[in-house]
Design goal:
seven-stranded mixed sheet, RNA-binding, 32 strands, four-stranded parallel sheet, alpha+beta
Length: 821
RNA sequence: GCCCGGAUGGCGGAAUUGGUAGACGCGCUAGCUUCAGGAGCUAGUUGUCGCAAGGCAGUGCAGGUUCGAGUCCUGUUCCGGGCACCA
């Protein structure tokens, strides 16, 4: 009989739902396990292959843990705010609220059809006022501590999305992370979260979490800690000073010029009149370049002199002050001391503009007089450096800093690449920023008791770069909370990454109304034990969430330092080698597979395709193999109905009571238990499925086995298949004669270690590194006996006769190597 | 340019970490079954030489270490990812 997956799957889904099988008792903390998968972005009504690949295997892992006796909490929710819904509204006129809610309804249905073990009582969506009011509350707490602030700054502007972006949301080719358009720079007054206050902790915390090394490295690079010092250069004829940041104060004697970022205001004040025209022209030309064009390493450096001179604090030497595009206003002090002899960029620049190059660090093994053909950037002996001559340069760094500090001309300084998190967005579909601007009092936070500031339904969606909220008068006009006078609301909304930085804390009670989340539950259930999601969030979501978690800890809301203890990234499923997207027209629709094979086969096939963390190119070629496997398994159970009732299995058997076929089956069952256990535990689903297929092949011999061993085997098979194919697992378990659901009363079998011991072993005989013979011997016979058997072997003899045996190596129960001459 | 991954049959991929390369699955071939199509079952399937027994070659490429290398070392090519004037 063909496996009736439609009936089986829908009947189990109904059973799970009617009986709330997947509801987690959050008061039971014994063996608690929080398995979290990144919540879904409901920009379309359909779940695509990528969603399935993310959610199916993760759910299988959670189910595996559940069967192993863990009290698993696996929630699902909706990252419901965001641009796509709004862009869709501009295109079609369907309001984001309406399309999003519709999509959520459809997606929820599909999640259930997939067979997800989600606790639907814990469902949440970020676009609900009951949720986003706590984004606003969080904003106010940050504001109170001075960690939410407004400043005018050059920001990334996406002309297509019509909004600003955080640094993390700009790809390194200068394009928008979301839509791929080229991002430009604009000066705007925007809200920032001061993530930089936590920079050291964000860095150090990486050592304490079990995340992929690659991801931790990406965060580390993004934070970009750089230990160095600030050194002050006097400006000839001015009271002001130029403060430079350098990691190499040991090269100070090699400074031959100083470079300022063109946009530094100081440039205007120090430029000599006769250089003014050239300098202004240059500043204009730099502005026409995008940040990315400007910082491209392949572009040749440009620059002009200002006519001003700076004075080197270590030797009083006067050096010209230049402005150049390779000095960045946004990093360090925006001023660089140029040491062409020992810095590649300065070397290139000096060569181009014929500026002097001075050698002050001697490369080990070279002579004082040797010409510098390229910048030497390593450690060496200090030369041409006055009283520091002869000192190793790493020691020299400390010495010079100490001396400069004594003269108040320098100090140790640590710089970071990480900037504060820009959270304002000039878009509608997000959380309103809870700030009111009063004509009298200025910037006033909305009092907590007035939250939420509800996002109004009626606005004009027009992609003109202004915030759509500005079009709703009723929303904009407000009374000042302080003086009651005329005021207006902030019309921007928050970056949706704010929503996702703390959702995992609210899942435990999404209806909690006395606060952002129930702290007691959060403390009991977080950090999240297992977090699964795409590697594209390595810096962005995963960094923001760590920051918010630490802030919430500091205001007493949670008691842990890190939100996600263990992290796994699923790989990407591509189609014809490229990422699936509507514009490419290569999107594969999971529904046809659902209809033809069912959810179990489809999710198991996704797991079988290859290593989970690697992803791969989609092909439906192999899905029939998984389907055949499921069909065979079902037939096996179908033809052995109620066998566990009629022939109950023992917990353990002794090999002595078995015939050869039985021994072999019994051994295979137990080997498989061991294998499946460790493979699923480590997200290696492909090999877990393969192991079960091997067992299924072995089960062809069950006809030669006693009935209670058939029960024994089928029981274990049903339990092992259940995490991977939950509906099938339940159905098989029921066919055996069990009354209750596996996931209502979890079962997991341990392997009988004794069964794993084989009594015969194939010893491979290698002669000069080549396999020449195989000998069957009982396990654990002495080396002498093995040797005797090996040399009695005809094939071995034919190779060794008349030759001198030089060496013999025996690897017990495995291999016997002979070296002959 | 720098830093990580990776490269194994016609295809997706296994390989207890130095010990029988190719598990498992797809595809393909043959046989059985079927009116037929499909499906199912059984056997085979790295290449090559051979009637066969068996031999030889074989994990991107070139070397090396070792009794023994897909696995370790050196160099190199290609592919994927990340970073990229951060002083």
């Amino acid at each position: 009989m063909k496996y009736p997956f439609q009936e089986v799957e829908s009947s189990w889904q109904k059973f799970w739902e009617d009986n709330k099988i997947h509801k987690t008792d959050l008061t039971n903390l014994e063996k608690k396990l929080y398995c979290l998968v990144m919540f879904i972005y409901p920009s379309a009504a359909k779940m695509h292959i990528g969603h399935w690949y993310n959610y199916g295997p993760t759910d299988s892992w959670a189910r595996f843990k559940k069967l192993k006796g863990f009290n698993v909490f696996e929630p699902m929710g909706y990252d419901a705010f965001g641009l796509p819904a709004e862009n869709y509204a501009i295109k079609t006129g369907v309001h984001p609220h309406d399309s999003t809610l519709k999509n959520i309804t459809d997606i929820r249905e599909m999640m259930k059809q997939m067979g997800g073990m989600y606790d639907w009582d814990a469902e949440l969506m970020t676009c609900a006022p009951e949720y986003y009011r706590w984004n606003q509350w969080l904003f106010l707490q940050l504001y109170k501590k001075g960690l939410a602030y407004r400043k005018n700054a050059p920001v990334n502007w996406c002309p297509s999305c019509q909004t600003v972006l955080a640094n993390e949301q700009v790809l390194n080719d200068g394009n928008c992370e979301r839509c791929g358009s080229t991002v430009i720079q604009k000066n705007l007054t925007q809200w920032f979260f001061k993530i930089t206050n936590y920079v050291d902790e964000l860095l150090d915390g990486l050592d304490k979490i079990d995340w992929p090394e690659k991801t931790k490295l990406m965060q580390k690079n993004w934070i970009g800690k750089s230990i160095g010092s600030e050194v002050e250069f006097a400006i000839e004829g001015h009271d002001e000073k130029i403060t430079v940041f350098t990691t190499r104060p040991d090269t100070l004697f090699g400074v031959t010029y100083v470079v300022l970022a063109p946009e530094k205001e100081l440039v205007q004040r120090i430029t000599k009149p006769e250089f003014k025209d050239v300098v202004d022209q240059y500043i204009d030309s730099v502005k026409s370049f995008s940040e990315i064009e400007r910082t491209s390493t392949v572009k040749e450096k440009t620059g002009v002199p200002t006519g001003a001179y700076a004075v080197n604090p270590v030797n009083g030497e006067r050096v010209p002050v230049w402005i150049a595009d390779y000095a960045l206003a946004t990093y360090g002090t925006g001023c660089v001391m140029a040491v062409p002899g020992h810095d590649e960029r300065d070397f290139e620049f000096a060569k181009k503009f014929n500026l002097p190059i001075r050698k002050v660090i001697l490369k080990p093994g070279t002579e004082l007089g040797d010409e510098l053909k390229e910048a030497y950037t390593e450690i060496g002996t200090m030369i041409n450096s006055g009283k520091y001559d002869g000192i190793e340069s790493d020691k020299g760094i400390e010495k010079i800093i100490k001396d400069l500090e004594a003269q108040k001309l320098g100090r140790g300084k640590i710089n970071y690449r990480l900037r504060d998190w820009l959270i304002s967005r000039q878009r509608y579909w997000g959380t309103p920023i809870p700030i009111i601007y009063c004509d009298q009092c200025g910037e006033v936070p909305v009092p907590e008791e007035n939250l939420p500031v509800v996002l109004p339904y009626d606005v004009a969606f027009k992609p003109d770069g202004g915030s759509p909220l500005a079009s709703n008068k009723e929303f904009v006009e407000a009374k000042c909370p302080k003086c009651g006078g005329h005021a207006h609301r902030d019309v921007d909304t928050m970056d949706t990454f704010v929503d996702s930085s703390w959702y995992y804390l609210r899942y435990m009670n999404p209806n909690f109304s006395n606060g952002m989340f129930d702290s007691e539950l959060a403390n009991n259930w977080t950090p999240v034990d297992m977090y699964v999601g795409g590697a594209e969030h390595a810096v962005m979501h995963l960094l923001y969430a760590r920051f918010v978690h630490k802030f919430l800890r500091d205001i007493g809301m949670v008691n842990s330092d890190e939100p996600f203890q263990r992290l796994i990234h699923q790989g990407t499923i591509t189609a014809q080698g490229s990422k699936m997207s509507k514009s490419r027209g290569n999107v594969v629709d999971p529904n046809s597979f659902m209809e033809n094979y069912g959810a179990d086969v489809f999710r198991m096939y996704l797991m079988f395709m290859g290593p989970y963390e690697l992803g791969g190119d989609w092909s439906d070629k192999g899905i029939v193999g998984v389907d055949r496997f499921v069909q065979r398994a079902y037939t096996m159970f179908e033809s052995n109905k109620n066998i566990a009732l009629e022939f109950p299995a023992k917990d353990k058997y002794s090999l002595a009571e078995f015939n050869e076929a039985e021994k072999s089956v019994y051994r295979k069952v137990n080997q498989t238990i061991l294998k499946v256990d460790v493979e699923i535990e480590n997200f290696r689903f492909n090999t877990a499925v393969a192991a079960l297929m091997e067992l299924s092949n072995e089960m062809k011999n069950l006809s030669e086995c006693r009935k209670d061993l058939v029960s024994y085997t089928l029981e274990r098979f049903a339990v092992m298949i259940a995490p991977l194919a939950p509906h099938l697992g339940e159905e098989c378990w029921k066919l055996l004669g069990n009354e209750t659901s596996l996931f209502r009363r979890p079962v997991w079998f341990n392997a009988d270690e004794k069964a794993l011991r084989v009594d015969a072993m194939t010893i491979v005989v290698q002669i000069n590194g080549k396999v020449r013979s195989k000998i069957e011997l009982p396990v654990d016979v002495s080396e002498a006996e093995v040797k005797a058997a090996v040399f009695a072997d005809e094939k071995v003899k034919s190779y060794t006769d008349g030759k001198e045996v030089v060496k013999e190596i025996y690897v017990p129960n495995k291999i016997y190597t002979i070296v002959i001459k």
